[in-house]
From TrEMBL:
Lineage: Bacteria, Bacillati, Actinomycetota, Actinomycetes, Micrococcales
Protein name: Probable membrane transporter protein
Cited PANTHER family: MEMBRANE TRANSPORTER PROTEIN YFCA-RELATED (PTHR30269:SF0), TRANSMEMBRANE PROTEIN YFCA (PTHR30269)
Family that this chain belongs to: Belongs to the 4-toluene sulfonate uptake permease (TSUP) (TC 2.A.102) family.
Compartment(s): Cell membrane
Membrane topology: Multi-pass membrane protein
Species in which this protein is naturally found: Arthrobacter oryzae
Amino acid sequence: MVSGLESIQLGTVILIIVAGLAAGWVDAVVGGGGLIQLPAMLLVPGISPVQALATNKMGSIFGTTTSAVTYYGRVRPDLRTALPMAVIAMAGSFGGAVLAANLPASVFKPIIVAALIAVALFTAFRPNVGALTKLRHAGHRHYVVACLIGGVIGFYDGLIGPGTGSFLIIALVSAMGYAFLEASAKAKIVNVATNAGALLFFVPHGAVLWGLGLVLGMANMAGGYLGARTAVKQGNRFIRIVFLAVVGALIIKLGSDVWHDNLA
């Protein structure tokens, strides 16, 4: 069983660094960096699925924090919505992580695939969605919807993980009426909280490989900073295109998992 970096070959460490850098960039733009990072973690010899998930969260929180700070400095998202949403999402993520230790993710994957297909079709056939911010709710209803989104997607992040940022963005765009850029900025703030919520469960249980997690975190920070700057510079149309590409990859990955689970 691995305990840190000392038992891992240099080639594997380099792979983890490259995966962390790429995942940080993708995650900062549209979410879904876990598609790259988590499979790379599972290639570490002797690592258990729980250790991979926990260490992935450890690395991701560095990248999401960096991209959240970068977005905030350039986009100035409304914290009156983002912070309550983040608090609820953190609690949801903790609950999802607890369940992840006791229930196989395969139970939920078919539902997630169906939701992703609906999201992809919705985004592809409504090209004007996310071009401008046109809020759908006002007053208390706005905050209630935001907190519901945070709780549900936070729970998903603690339970399964990949695609959390993408789900947050499409929910903020379609259910709340934000433009893609502002949705991405808010999603990163919430994503920091969901990673923290999962770590509140994983750290006391000794599931995090700290040496590997810190290396992954440094790579994720660099990718998150570059990704956030790219998204801000390129704007809503660029984010929408990358979003559709990442959602498509998520559908293929999780759909493949469901297929193999059914054959097993």
